[in-house]
Amino acid sequence: MHTILPVWNIVRCKFKLFCRFIVHKLKAKSKRGHGVHSPFVYNLIVNVFRDRKKHEPFAGIEDVRKMLISSGDTIKVNDMGAGSVFFKGDERAVSRIVRYSSTSRKKGELLYRLARYFGAKKILELGTSLGLGSMYLAAVSEDAEVWSIEGCPELAATAVKNISDAGFGNIRIIEGSFEEVLPSVIERMERVDFVFFDGDHRKQSLLWQFEQCLGKSTGETVFVFDDIHWSDEMEEAWSEITSHEKVTISIDLFICGIVFFRKGLPRQKFVLKY
Ligand SMILES: C[S@@+](CC[C@H](N)C(=O)[O-])C[C@H]1O[C@@H](n2cnc3c(N)ncnc32)[C@H](O)[C@@H]1O
């Protein structure tokens, strides 16, 4: 019974996600930008979403991923977010954390291209895990500074080591729960150009993080939300965020959602294939 329940949870969760994916596919406009009449979004499709170039820093970051996947280490994790259907207990293999909760190569490359396209310099990540997403964001430019918050002490310590081994000098890991440390991090940051929300997948927590980050956002800021279709709560949070009075353009790529606060653009919600 003990093994059947987690397997059943995984199957149910994956099935729900698959159904949401089909709904998204039916609603989404083509990857080529056909039918997208906003020049801002069309340029984004051409220059960011359809850019498949292997930029120079990617290989080094993927070497770190390979090293972590082949590691036999385990970590004691205190799960602070919505929990995981893939893990039971608090002792987790690093190789499994990489597979099930780290930013994938595809998403990492997207984060890099987005942050680079918009010239982001003050970057914030909520949820560091092993540091792969932080590295993609930090690789954008040596002048960029990445602040990344992680609530699990062992994960934070491992991320610090991974980041230093990979030679990144522009990432600060802040250990602590978002509730404890986000307000002071926001206060210390001059502004936020780019925020990657990839931590607590509960609706109220995500909406709170969003409001906190709005405090230092500008008209040029980009927010990226991971896993917007992961659960009913995440879909509800995404819907509230995209309807916020300050949000002008939102883009649902299924694997993540992106919002912009640019003035002078008509308010529009896009659903695009990616
Ligand atoms: C999906 S993982 C992040 C993956 C990471 N961004 C990457 O690029 O690989 C989510 C992380 O958020 C952390 N987290 C979840 N809820 C949190 C909270 N309330 N405060 C601090 N950290 C939290 C978890 O410990 C976990 O490591």
Describe the protein in words.
The protein has 274 residues and is of the alpha/beta class. The protein has a single domain, classed as 3-Layer(aba) Sandwich (Rossmann fold). It has 10 helices and 10 strands. Helix 9 links the parallel strand 6 (192-197) and strand 7 (217-226). The model has no long low-confidence stretch (mean pLDDT 93). The structure holds S-adenosylmethionine (SAM).
Topology record:
Layout: H1 4-27, H2 39-49, H3 57-69, E1 74-76, E2 91-93, H4 94-101, H5 105-117, E3 122-126, H6 132-138, E4 145-150, H7 153-165, E5 171-175, H8 178-188, E6 192-197, H9 203-214, E7 217-226, H10 232-242, E8 249-252, E9 256-260, E10 268-271
Parallel strand pairs: 3-4, 3-6, 4-5, 6-7, 8-10
Antiparallel strand pairs: 1-2, 7-9, 8-9
Helix pairs in contact: 2-5, 5-6, 9-10
The structure holds S-adenosylmethionine.
